[in-house]
Amino acid sequence: MNASHLTRHLAQQLTQQLALSRPPSILRLFCAALALLLLFSSGCSSVRLVYGHLDWWMDRNLNKYLDLDGAQEDLLSLRVDEFHRWHRQTQLPRYAAYLESLAADVDSPDANLKKLKHIEDQVDTFWHSSVVMLSDLLLPLVIQLDDQQIDRLEENVREEREESLKKWEKSKRKREKEFRKQAERWLGDLTPEQDAMIDHQVATTTFDPKRRDAQRQLWAKQFIGTLRSKPEGYESQLREMLINPQSLWPEDYRKMQEQLRAQARSLAGDVLKSTTPEQRAHLKSSLLDYASDFRILAAQEH
To answer: Interhelix angle for 113-142 vs 92-104, to 10°?
Structure first.
């Protein structure tokens, strides 16, 4: 069980499915950034520095994405502050405690797939908690958008989706380098055996970005259409689409995502079983450093 964030990194760099398979919604935009900034920062001091400015970043980017008027901007700022305060006080201690528990198990040789799946599920639970909170805070603002603002939102979603597809198709080599970089961040220098494992997995894993793009397009069409037409019960429908976008996945797309996750867990298990004492010490130190930073942040005033 010494694999929480290594597993997360391996899964993300291999499949991009934790962020990129999710629809390009205004609420998930911040949650994705939050995960990236907290979990993928280059160093622990960077986590503290960046987290202190998350409310500013969120306010600025969501406002730009939504094209709000003055009163709506004020409401957004209040909701952003509330979310940031909630996340700092309630979620960061959970992250810290979990990282500390994983650090205590670093020397355990058991890294079976069942335990890795449990870790993946826990990280998903952390993600879900933030998505639910943010959805409930911001959805009342979203449903206030007028027709012109909805048109702008639709255009922003389309542009973001198209740009994401272009980056995916052009950045395979960059993703491979980032994959290895994240593994080295948590384990230190990789062994030739581990390098070979990663090379093999990257070479044999297939992912169709156009299928992902089609699914994101379907989600956006459903969300924007519901927001625009406002049928009976539309607020609960919008909330469900934000919190559980997988409800719109067809069975073949769901199976593809499950297969990609299973492949990532398999690779993570193989790498972890092959770790050296020096790599395990490096991993333990990194986990505890991040846990310490999260506790420091949680104790600070908003």
So the answer is: 170
